[in-house]
């Protein structure tokens, strides 16, 4: 899936989306809550030219900063450009002052003053850097590069998230999202200003504040994407712009534990089973019942990580009538039983807290 560049485009707005704004807000909030964002690393970067820094695929450094997360998402706010970003296998893109670039799938990429592809040679330097940063042994402002007269200024954020077994919003995002600050609306610009002030005058608790700001910035970037580009490029967001599909999604998310059938859903929506099945599958990409099964397991995975409840209690809360049926479905999707998944998550969390 290719990257996307977002400029302000009000023609992408949908009357249907506006009419159901409360429902849409609840759905987006529900999906974002179930990726369990965790701020990991956040810092200001002032490289002088020439420079080229590669960030390998997140699997090479996730264990160093957030072992309890499924994936690391990274983004960069360009305060002073120009510079270049190159995602593995994609053409380089120019970044100017005010741009924000987000890498939602943890792909390898490089940031440099001239276009440069990421490389396997980036892996070890990146691991060394993240080891020191996670241990608090590096300052909040990193200055490096070739020492020339040219310079860039960026704010860099790395977040952990839970995206398995399935998150419909994240899975539908492109390999990168590039937003121009001139196109941004709402509090995102205020957050960037707060970040710059915090970097410029760090004091007690700054690292914790920066991590939380990083989480908020990510959410704001996703909101901006959803309100604009997401209406045409993201299957799940297209569903929210369709009144019938949006109401169906609202039922499946809001009453997840209910015993749903296609016939019951269609009855609640005052439409035929065939129309609902065809339209939902065409817009979202999977049938309604498969969507519900996948989302139940996504929520169950979060509950197993966060709560000490018995497996049967969690199974019931997401709509399974028996622990055995839930365990079979969970293992088929995740490759491990619910109890083994919980033990693994708790071990990773202990290691993360020790760091």
TrEMBL record:
Annotated ranges, domain HTH araC/xylS-type: 246-344
Xref: SMART domains: HTH_ARAC (SM00342)
GO molecular function: DNA-binding transcription factor activity; sequence-specific DNA binding
InterPro entries in the cross-refs: AraC_lig, AraC_XylS_family_regulators, Homeodomain-like_sf, HTH_AraC, HTH_AraC-typ_CS, Tscrpt_reg_AraC-type_HTH
GO terms (BP aspect): positive regulation of metabolic process
Pfam families: Cupin_6 (PF12852), HTH_18 (PF12833)
Key words of the record: DNA-binding, Transcription, Transcription regulation
The protein's role, per its UniProt record: Regulatory protein of the TOL plasmid xyl operons. XylS activates the xylXYZLTEGFJQKIH operon required for the degradation of toluene, m-xylene and p-xylene.
Protein's UniProt name: AraC family transcriptional regulator
Taxonomic source organism: Marinobacter panjinensis
